[in-house]
């Protein structure tokens, strides 16, 4: 008998298992494929490894002459880019394996089948684990549907990580985070790239001004962006895909490859469905990550909530503490959303587009072009936007478009999560010259006292 069996070794599952062990409870982790789940093997880690190469290539290509550096003969080697990606994945997997051993987690590389709330069958071992609690962290899989599912050779994000040569042209269906990041990668190396997005603008979960700056950047990179348009038909003519679409006007687009990047769906197996769990789009839980069946928890993408690795990890922490007998609840008020475009995007808290009563808030923006550090690195596209409560001065939301926005946004996360005021952040001395001073500039702007614009 163990205190918990965690099913799924992704960023939710392995973090949950380690924390359960750290809290003095016995725990087994079951993963049917590779440790790290989607994030390590088919998502965050490989994408960012590839984008590191793309960002570096773009930096050298666009800035070297102005910075006095001779880089004649600049080129790239896809095999080495993919080799770097694969090394990064392997190192991450091994790191997780080491952490499991270090913390005394029993790991089974096997297919788990939940028999009931107290028993999990390891199908390959032929062994049944008896447990007091089960944590389901089975993750998600790429969404693909008609007409794309009926055509051979259509890529999902998983297929990109196995490519052996760069296509000459690519259509990306979906202009969300996944689509924009892949458009950034491929266009950096000269691939003729087109994004087709159904919503009013790319990055539909970010504010329009954020999307506008990323659209401008991608357009300068040669990406064609078609918004408010739905693909209705896909045909394959020898080595070329032909996509027919309709929106404000009908159009036809051709490309060597098509990548469907419209998001992911929860991976819910038949044994999970048979348990009698409440399932809507994903498995339903309360704020303690408990399902409607006592002793069974669900975390991460299988909940179909915020499908982010860092959210899954923290949900795993919450589940672990509740399993250990403590009371801990999830707080989604300050979840950071990050995009490794060029420039990067980071946001947290409320968005301007979601503000219902504009009279209750103050919104201030500070342009990247007014920042000294940005000028030294030849960057001028982007801004920091702060949304504050007019009455008490608390920071309610922040959006950043900038190099290193994925790092800079943490100041906003801490402010929103802890109810800090604009004054409290503004009175914290920001180092000079740094990009973090763009945050300071936006904070000063809340009270109409920006120094540098």
TrEMBL record:
UniProt cross-references to InterPro entries, sorted A to Z: Class-I_Pyr_Nuc-Dis_Oxidored (IPR050151), FAD/NAD-bd_sf (IPR036188), FAD/NAD-binding_dom (IPR023753), FAD/NAD-linked_Rdtase_dimer_sf (IPR016156), Lipoamide_DH (IPR006258), Pyr_nuc-diS_OxRdtase (IPR001100), Pyr_nucl-diS_OxRdtase_dimer (IPR004099)
Keywords: FAD, Flavoprotein, NAD, Nucleotide-binding, Oxidoreductase, Redox-active center
Residues that bind NAD(+): 174-181, 197, 263
Binding residues annotated for FAD, in chain numbering: 48, 301, 307-310
Broad class of where this protein is predominantly found: cytoplasm
Gene Ontology MF annotations: dihydrolipoyl dehydrogenase (NADH) activity; flavin adenine dinucleotide binding
Disulfide bond residue pairs: 39-44
Reactions listed under catalytic activity: N(6)-[(R)-dihydrolipoyl]-L-lysyl-[protein] + NAD(+) = N(6)-[(R)-lipoyl]-L-lysyl-[protein] + NADH + H(+)
Every Pyridine nucleotide-disulphide oxidoreductase dimerisation domain range: 335-439
Domain of life where this protein originates: Bacteria
GO BP of this protein: 2-oxoglutarate metabolic process
SUPFAM superfamilies xrefs: FAD/NAD(P)-binding domain (SSF51905), FAD/NAD-linked reductases, dimerisation (C-terminal) domain (SSF55424)
Pfam family, one: Pyr_redox_dim
Cofactor binding, note field: Binds 1 FAD per subunit.
Class of this enzyme: oxidoreductase
Cofactor: FAD
UniProt miscellaneous comment: The active site is a redox-active disulfide bond.
Protein name (record): Dihydrolipoyl dehydrogenase
